[in-house]
Amino acid sequence: VDKFPGHVRNENFKKITEQDVDFFKSLLGETGVVYKNEDDLFAFNTDWMNKFRGKSQLALKPKTTQQVSAIMKYCNDQKIAVVPQGGNTGLVGGSVPLFDEVVLSLQNMNNIRGFDDVSGVLSADAGCVLEVLDNWLGEKGYMMPLDLGAKGSCHIGGNIATNAGGLRLLRYGSLHGTVLGLEVVLPDGTILDNMATLRKDNTGYDLKQLFIGSEGTIGVVTGVSILTPHRSKAVNVALLGLNSFEDVQKAFTHSRKELSEILSAFEFWDINALEMFKKHAVTKAAMENEYPFYVLVETSGSNKDHDDEKLNNYLEKMMENEVAQDGVVAQDETQIRSLWAIREGFTEALGKEPAVYKYDISMPVPKIYECVEDMRAHLTQGGVLGKPDSAVIDVVAYGHVGDGNLHLNIAANRHDKKTSELIEPYLFEWVAKHKGSISAEHGLGVAKNEFLGYSKSPVMINMMKTIKNLFDPNGIMNPYKYLPTK
Ligand code: FAD
Ligand code: MLT
Ligand code: ZN
Description:
Number of helices: 16
CATH class of the largest domain: Alpha Beta
Bound molecules: flavin-adenine dinucleotide, D-malate, zinc ion
CATH topology of the largest domain: Uridine Diphospho-n-acetylenolpyruvylglucosamine Reductase, domain 3
Strand order of the largest sheet: 13-10-12-11-15-16-14
Radius of gyration: 23 Å
Protein name: FAD-binding PCMH-type domain-containing protein
Organism: Phycomyces blakesleeanus
Number of domains: 4
Family: Belongs to the FAD-binding oxidoreductase/transferase type 4 family.
Keywords: FAD, Flavoprotein, Oxidoreductase
Shape: globular
Cofactor: FAD
């Protein structure tokens, strides 16, 4: 399978020579350079979904910002293309090379630089794993302001580069608000030290914002300072079974009203997602009966009695009004974890299918499930869904209701032209028609870049190209991705 159809190597980029490798070894030592070792390079060349695969012969593992700077200066002078790589959990093929680009891995830059336990500001290297940071903060009574299923592998630098949203954006907001400062190495090696720890600073353009969500196209994030909230003493998780997406919306509006300041997550999935999870995971049923829709509600507060009372009142109302057909409340930490394990397990379960078309879209909440139903009807009409030998196995939906973010996944027996052409650009047209975004949180990478025009105007795309050229005139950073190439 051609993993990158339609792409051609840009011959302006230099091919790596032994002399280049000697330079990198002199800078990083033997252990900081992985060269021409197929086995060791495999992980750097292959994305999390095993969908995209590059052919890089060289991965570099610097330990300091100065080393990153020296690498970038050398690559810029020599016109060597570079792909910054964090935990390699990205879902749009952005973190792996297409051809022979050098992989610049941040995995050896994993020191915590400092923590202020009055303001809750944490400063850390970009290669720190999200879960490691969260556990470290946990001992101090704090937590990271974002959480996602990939927390055990993704880096905070990768989170910033993708502007990851995750499971608690509803409560703690986006990284555009919580990141206070960044240290970034620009493509020519310049170190932009903007490691501010201030909440307020109106002295000019807020440059760090440009790098949040820039997917490694204009600089390498090497350090971050981020505002972290107090870890809540009382956490409750409830699972609801519902009959319709309309009821999901009612449950959501009520949760905002009734649970208000203690609401920390509101996630949904459909029965198809649950079936997919059960197919691949060993799990005990959380509910006796099955329902077309499920909602996970989490509350986090400082007073358990108060939170229990609020949640119980909410659940009672949902059952009395027949918004929810069933409800369970986790009784201890183990049950909390197993309810979250269902929600966080869909990505991995889908990854075990022969093929999966992943979409991550945002739109007004009332439209979310219409989109799923429309896609099912469209694929059935197109002849690829609904028969025993159909290419498509199932259309699975889950997502962050509170953020208007739907994860639409089409599991298939194979990637084939007919199915791909039925989905794209049909889905993007649907999203654009409803004023949505074709990528709510996973980014563009190599999977969505050619479709950017469905979410951004020509004026905006031109401005993005101008910014790219300003920072990276040689185009060496993460080429072929992010911006449309055609
Ligand atoms: P990578 O995958 O290594 O890289 C992603 C992009 O960022 C690439 O373009 C890369 O070049 C660039 N990059 C990485 N590090 C740097 C750096 N230091 N400087 C400059 N550029 C860099 N995303 C969400 O938003 N919400 C979710 O809930 C969510 N859940 C997920 C669950 C699972 C199980 C998985 C596998 C993925 C999930 N993701 C989610 C997708 C993914 O975006 C995040 O996992 C994460 O933010 C990527 O971080 P990473 O360190 O793995 O980055
Ligand atoms: C999620 O919310 O689970 C993630 O964004 C990953 C996915 O979409 O599969
Ligand atoms: Zn998500």
